[in-house]
Amino acid sequence: MTKRDVDGVSGRPVATQMAFPLRRVTAMTSDRFINGPSNVAARAWLARSQWPDGRLWLWGPSGTGKTHLLTVWAHEHDATVLDARLFSKSSAGGRIRVQGNLAIDNADSPGDEATMLHLLNDAFSQGDRVLMAGRLPPSRSHFMLPDLASRLRATATTATGEPEDDLRATLLLSLLADRQLVVSQSVTDWLWRHLPRTGNALVSAVERLDEAALVRKQPITRALALEMLPDLLMPEE
Hints:
The protein has 237 residues and is an alpha/beta fold. The protein has helices at residues 40-46, 66-76, 113-126, 146-153, 165-178, 185-194, 199-216, 222-228; strands spanning 2-6, 13-17, 55-59, 80-83, 102-105, 130-134, 156-159. The strands form two sheets. The protein has a five-stranded parallel β-sheet with strand order 4-5-6-3-7, with helices on one face. A two-stranded antiparallel sheet has the order 1-2. Helix 5 runs parallel beside helix 7. The protein is elongated, with a radius of gyration of 22 Å.
């Protein structure tokens, strides 16, 4: 998309390129999830037909597939997906009511703890299941409401870990493919060797490279990566 600027010499309008941070939406389906030892325990828990008190807390570092797993589970169990950061008090005294199974993302940082407690109480009384996901387990998350804190700390937990090398390589290629980025194998191999061994580093690197390549209308090269990822790239051994 272009905007019209005025040329400082001729006074005529000229077209300049505007880059918008449009993030491509990736379908978080079961067939697109990358299985590996780092998420095998979480997948086993999610496959269970029952959880203690009908609740499960999934935690792990950013970029390790928690939201993807939560989305897949919600689709398979016809669950309503909510972002806990958006919970808020209602001036009218009302609150969110959900019928059926529930999936709560960012559960370790709810915008309103009373809303979250009411949702858990409703689900328990209705016999519905609740899957929650956050970066930290309940024991390391801070909740002001004692009832909510005790309820969550009594919840069964499972975790995703940082990806192992094989999964990291597949994840990098998948992230590039999701954004329809064509990158030479020599560059992807180099990125894999020099990026930190975390899922979040891969996600952040691909997002930055995609934006830079879009703005500059140039392919992703090692030189571009060196320029855009100075804080992420590890030095040559």
